[in-house]
Amino acid sequence: MSETDYEDTNVKIITNDIKSVNPVLIEGFPGIGLVGNIASQQIIDELKMEYIGSIDSRHFPPIAVLYEGLINMAVRIYESQEHNILMIVSDIPVNPVVAYDISKAILEWAQSVKVKEIVSLAGIATMSEEHKVFGAATNTEMLERIKEKVELFQMGTISGISGSIMSECLVRHMPAISLLGSTRSQNPDPRAAAVVIDVLNILYGLNVNTESLIEQAEKIEIEMQRLAEDVRTTEQPVTPRKEFPMYG
């Protein structure tokens, strides 16, 4: 079986031979609200993307991911030849200390398989209840493509592995955009993932259904409300302790 490999002392990428020609690479690593991870997995499921490989590193935590009884790699790569898309999805966060090494490896591998552009999916914390998509790009051409579809950053930062990947794209002159779904908390936020997918659908002519994400969001919201009510009902008022005078 043909394989496309990248390996250095810190990171190893092994995939089957890539069938797509000048594909778009989308990545979704866990972060705020798990937006990138949730959105990526939804796209993989809806487009019935094929598992083609994985990314491993000695800096990753020593875990194996289980799904329906089968062992999976924690950071996986999928392909949809029909849509000309590659997808990297991760079930583990990347330690900031090794973010540069992972980003460098991803970009070198992406260039070796002739990826034409990269899309980074992540979350961003806001105080607003409304779910929006914020965007940024590595060049003016990519910015023109997204400016009517997202809220543009006038100033700010993109942290974590997503920020590191975008910086590496800039250095290597790889066209790239970052789509960040707004969320109010650290809890999983399928609604934020859904609005990010809506923008992707427009940009790349996809038809990824997000109804199941909205259903997940409603279940999570109901469960969070129930937990909050349980906490309130179990909290007992504290009776002030009576202080007795002390005599020496």
TrEMBL record:
NCBIfam families: proteasome assembly chaperone family protein. Gene3D superfamilies: PAC-like subunit. Transmembrane segments: none annotated. It holds the Pfam family PAC2. This is 3-isopropylmalate dehydratase.
